[in-house]
Amino acid sequence: MNEKLLEVxxxxxxxxxxxxxxxxxxxxxxxxxxxxxxxxVGETGAGKTTTALxxxxxxxxxxxxxxxGEIIFEGKDIVKLSEAELRKIRGDKIxxxxxxxxxxxxxxxxxxxxxxxxxxxxxxxxRKEAIERAKEMLEMVGIPxxxxxxxxxxxxxxxxxxxxIAIALACSPALLIADEPTTALDVTIQAQVLALMKRLKTDLxxxxxxxxxxxxxxxxxxxxxxxxxxGEIVEFGTLAEIFEDHRHPYTEGLFxxxxxxxxxxxxxxxxxxxxxAPTNLPDGCKFYPRCPYATERCKNENPDRVTITDTHIVRCxxxxxxxxxxxx
Amino acid sequence: MEALLEVKNLKKYFAxxxxxxxxxxxxxxTIKKGQTLGVVGESGCGKSTLGRTILHLLEPTDGAILFEGxxxxxxxxxxxxVLRQEMxxxxxxxxxxxxxxxxxxxxxxxxxxxxKMKSNEKERREYVQHLMRTVGxxxxxxxxxxxxxxxxxxxxxxxxxxxxLDPKFIVCDExxxxxxxxxxxxxxxxxxxxxxxxxxxxxxxxHDLSVVKHISDEICVMYLGMLVEKSPSKELFKxxxxxxxxxxxxxxxxxKLVQEERVILKGEISSPINVKEGCxxxxxxxxxxxxxxxxxxxxxxxxxxxQVACHYVKEINGLT
Lengths: 328, 320
Known about the structure:
Largest sheet of chain B: 8 strands, mixed
Number of strands of chain B: 12
Structural class of chain B: alpha/beta
Mean pLDDT of chain B: 89
Low-confidence stretches of chain A: 324-328
Oligomer: heterodimer
């Protein structure tokens, strides 16, 4: 359980356009252990997906460029691998589920063919065997195997997402990256897909990175949580540490702004302002323009990572001086 | 308080090659002045069609719509032009509901021009600036284009445009679904403030129960074109009687460490084409009995203001 599967060190990814440089990922570091599920939480444009694409070796270049950092997966640095080597890993050892199941399937191939395609690519087996395996995968995600000859448009949104999950898991990957896998689905269907992913997590022992903006989804499935803001992990900890003992003002703001079903309030507390554009990040702490506790120091100096416990890391000046923000 | 909008047995059917699609079937409700009705349901339940039919963006098939006591069901397009000043809409996707080739002030100004609300350009410009301030857009944005703005600001443009004609009633179709949580809260607060200041009446359509809780006075839960439960907002979150409402509420992932046991529904929403007699929810219902497949249940009052359409509501909830 405690073997390190993935180690990301100081990853920096920027996008270059004609006249601007978008700093999408600015020094992200984290570890992922075997069988662990880490949640990436943050707003649109925080750099969650770019980090994931970096791990897949899929950052579109140009305009994207990995400027710094290492991504060590099973002892190899993904950043330095050639395209041919990456292709062997992708779909076999690391796979990804995308947000929108409607656009990530090929409309002119049957779902069975699409699942078999991955299996054939990474295993030396016959086409017939691959189709058989595809059927088994469909059964596993709760779709009758005989529907393998149907096309994506014959399935509903929730079922399409199940097919996408079946493709991602077809080669029993060590790492599954799920990019907002349930955002496009209705709540009752989302509950079905989440229950499925939870079951697969225990059955197949796959490690996962779960990208989402929904803290409810995180609570459901993740072991650890990374709160991402403007391309940095501002807080990282176990589920309990983030939910019960969060220290960063942004994490606090995020939790406050979720409408709580169990509490009555007249107005929702908000984080004022907007996330800075990645082309124009402030000096110092990236969160200081929106932070209710900001000081002069926050404006000039980007805070370092402060380790609170073995698993809990926070990036905030205030933490040291005030011990805990929540007390103020 | 008097009713601003009254909908009686409203039906909207579409003819499709495979049969009649029952998008909205026998829906009745009233919205009082200055209040908000939340309409909740999953995609395909007919909630947007309901909103559009009320605004005559779609022709109602049957039933009656009363606005300030006046039957507006049969009002023709030309006459509705006048009514539309009082009934506006805010759309879901601020990225596609505003013209990308117009500037912010141009977008907000358009309805003012069409309805000739202000006599000269100077007044019009002042009015547009006033509207921009009202929704929290700074004045230096008036010459910007929508693509230069983020989702939250774009939705503010949509709101300003809906407010431009000084309406009484606004249908808000998923106005915050496309936005990030922190922005969502900002927009919801803005809408609640505006409602208070301008005495607006909202019909708030959403799939997200947690959003609707804060803004609604009353909530309707829709399933396949029909209302299955109607209740004052506060009460609904304390007590849900319909099995679908229970499942819908239970399905929301809660940001809590200790997770409660979930009711997970089997299957998916069935087709609204050529629906048969019987409860629409029966194929997915945990408590389904023979009667549910044979007879369509109607809304019945369980407690004051709280109505449920379920044959076995008493048995399921242990009520006498």
